[in-house]
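Re-run with default settings, no changes from the original entry. Doing this only to confirm the output is reproducible before filing.
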Amino acid sequence: MSILSDLINLNLSESTEKIIAEYIWIGGSGMDLRSKARTLVGPVKDPSKLPKWNYDGSSTGQASGEDSEVILYPQAIFKDPFRRGNNILVMCDAYTPAGDPIPTNKRHNAAKIFSNPVVAAEEPWYGIEQEYTLLQKEVNWPLGWPIGGFPGPQGPYYCGTGADKAFGRDIVDAHYKACLYAGINISGVNGEVMPGQWEFQVGPAVGISAGDEVWTARYILERIAEVAGVVVSFDPKPIPGDWNGAGAHANYSTKSMREDGGYEIIKKAIDKLGLRHKEHIAAYGEGNERRLTGKHETADINSFKWGVANRGCSVRVGRDTEKAGKGYFEDRRPASNMDPYVVTSMIAETTIVWKP
């Protein structure tokens, strides 16, 4: 095993200019992450300098066997925390050979929204709070829970410390450091209310980069959990009953909201979100109705309400924002399995471009 470990950690830069690029993309379910590696002649920092690549879409549920080629367009580069050195992770989106985005490519439309001059001028900032649950691989049951049984009620686990309260901290810390190494603007982590559930925050990130960074952070988490023999679940309600669900709250502000008088802009933006509540809910994640019940720190899925410092609302405004008269707000509706390209661009489109 020591020889294998030595080879895995081999520093390529000591013997070659060549690097390994791991191309990452989203598969047919909209949540399954795929990747494969290729050798490049030397270090690359600009995604536009990377070659396009292809994959068999019939094996990912994204093309038929008779016409299976799907083309990967490199969009964002991150340092590879697994191979290290000059090796890179490459976040891609997918197109037909004719150059049309495939139906599961949500990045393409998001990029169009963020490149709108009106949206770009507002410099939309995002902070995504990504919750997830760690599961025991053999039994598909949360990490730290007795097999076939339940732990004690919620209360001591949120930001908890101790072997009977925090399950999977080694994975969480490894992920935290790996994301920082990669260049992802991960701003923090914490244990969540349900035991075995954790959260990481990405941001502030501007425009399309928020989606690129969240997806790459998810990929890194899946890879670390793979090594640990643990399953990552993004199900919005992994355990039925009196247990918290998992969300991906979206903190959001525009340039106008961050300037003096921004609180009035915030209130107008929230009003617009309320008018399109059903459209947003439909795009905010599969199975979200199991989470948004009006209990466990959520608003009911069928109603829209906002408030200051109220975690039972659809949209929450912080006390600091109210006091300063400017700042950001938090859309608490997105589920943990939401597509960050869809959610971030939809919030921008509704609050900046859309006219009621």
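Residues 39 and 139 are 38 Å apart (CA to CA). DSSP finds ten helices and 14 strands in the chain.
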